[in-house]
């Protein structure tokens, strides 16, 4: 929430429900993966939604949610569900309520919003007619990497001519467009999607791409090109490390699943292992109905339950990979404070408060608080930010849509002795001009 009740929630949106699977949805028992149902519910699921857009899934996403209680909770907060009768004064009160409520009440509100968000994404997925559901089903499997073109086609996204990195401020402006329909009493009728984007203060698409990422608890599609080129980059950067740190593993933090780290390890290109850690890893990340005979194929990737600070001290990595930052919260200071770290790389929405802190993490001047130093922390500490466009061009972020691609990017922060030469950094930057064939 911006200004009075800032952006993606001014901390009101913290927690897994903003970017991960809704906690209120029934989960499997510890020995089973995916969403579990009673016999009656399973029969309804198999009969009514196993076939989507002409494809019959063997492992299919849950597109029906027990949302009555969530709808009731949401209506008690907002006043209605869909369409929503927007009132500016009440909207400000909703934002304030999310910020000042105790943890129990805040979690209940966020879980209700998350369930309705999931339900509306599912409706968009089922209604889409320009998707390749056979390829989408393959994308659910944790070891599968679609090519960039196949992923775009399957998700119904148009292939851009060139890679263009999106400007986050544009997403903020798009989210406020429904306010133009307000009458003189500052009231209007909005869809749930419009209200949801306005609540978090940036445009969030409701499309197949967002739903597929939600179904497997990831923030971007691990395309084959992204994984292979990232592995090449890490191997090359690792070759420049000298001293005893060269034998230490690369650390991956932020994501609640270890899928991307495992895919990178599977390339066998990187001479040291990538170790994924998270304080609260997601042991069952699937909003999928997974039959018993398929369970073994969905075994979650290895991830160690450990806080980032403890992992930094234990593994003493020279390189750290990061993703899925909590909004308005900076997790990079602790990484820079480790003398062993020479580079950290982030995969996701850069230069925003949606992932990380707009100023402390990204140094984006728009979000600098008045009175703070004119240089962002990473520059003051001797680090430089490098946009890795040759990797970013292969990323399909969960918020990408036909309206705007390039939401996600790969961004490196480096210090000596790994600071790249100007010519090398320019080469990476100019990669955005290569046309997609």
From TrEMBL:
Region (Disordered): 1-24
Amino acid composition bias (Low complexity), ranges on this chain: 1-22
Name the record gives this protein: Uncharacterized protein
Organism this protein belongs to: Bodo saltans
């Amino acid at each position: 929430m911006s200004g009075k009740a800032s952006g993606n929630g001014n901390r009101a949106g913290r927690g897994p429900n903003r970017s991960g699977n809704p906690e209120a949805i029934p989960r499997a028992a510890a020995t089973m993966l995916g969403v579990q149902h009673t016999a009656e519910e399973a029969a309804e699921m198999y009969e009514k939604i196993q076939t989507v857009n002409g494809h019959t899934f063997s492992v299919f996403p849950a597109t029906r949610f027990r949302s009555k209680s969530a709808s009731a909770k949401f209506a008690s907060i907002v006043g209605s569900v869909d369409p929503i009768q927007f009132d500016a004064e009440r909207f400000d009160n909703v934002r304030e309520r999310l910020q000042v409520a105790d943890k129990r009440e805040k979690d209940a509100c966020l879980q209700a919003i998350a369930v309705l968000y999931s339900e509306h994404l599912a409706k968009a997925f089922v209604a889409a007619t320009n998707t390749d559901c056979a390829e989408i089903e393959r994308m659910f499997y944790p070891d599968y990497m679609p090519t960039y073109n196949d992923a775009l086609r399957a998700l119904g996204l148009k292939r851009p001519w060139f890679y263009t990195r999106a400007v986050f401020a544009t997403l903020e402006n798009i989210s406020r467009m429904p306010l133009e329909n307000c009458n003189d009493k500052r009231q209007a009728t909005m869809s749930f999607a419009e209200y949801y984007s306005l609540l978090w203060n940036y445009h969030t698409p409701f499309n197949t791409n967002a739903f597929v990422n939600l179904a497997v608890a990831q923030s971007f599609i691990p395309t084959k090109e992204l994984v292979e080129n990232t592995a090449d980059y890490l191997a090359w950067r690792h070759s420049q490390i000298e001293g005893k740190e060269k034998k230490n593993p690369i650390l991956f933090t932020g994501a609640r699943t270890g899928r991307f780290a495992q895919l990178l390890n599977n390339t066998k290109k990187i001479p040291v292992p990538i170790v994924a850690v998270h304080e609260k890893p997601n042991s069952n990340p699937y909003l999928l109905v997974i039959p018993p005979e398929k369970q073994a194929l969905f075994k979650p990737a290895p991830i160690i339950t450990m806080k980032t600070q403890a992992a930094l001290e234990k593994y003493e990595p020279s390189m750290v990979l990061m993703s899925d930052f909590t909004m308005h919260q900076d997790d990079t200071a602790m990484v820079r404070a480790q003398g062993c770290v020479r580079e950290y790389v982030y995969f996701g929405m850069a230069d925003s408060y949606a992932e990380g802190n707009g100023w402390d993490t990204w140094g984006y001047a728009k979000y600098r608080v008045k009175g703070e130093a004119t240089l962002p922390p990473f520059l003051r500490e001797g680090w430089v930010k490098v946009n890795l466009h040759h990797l970013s061009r292969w990323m399909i972020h969960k918020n990408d849509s036909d309206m705007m691609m390039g939401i996600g990017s790969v961004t490196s922060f480096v210090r000596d002795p790994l600071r790249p030469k100007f010519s090398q950094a320019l080469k990476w930057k100019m990669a955005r001009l290569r046309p997609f064939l």
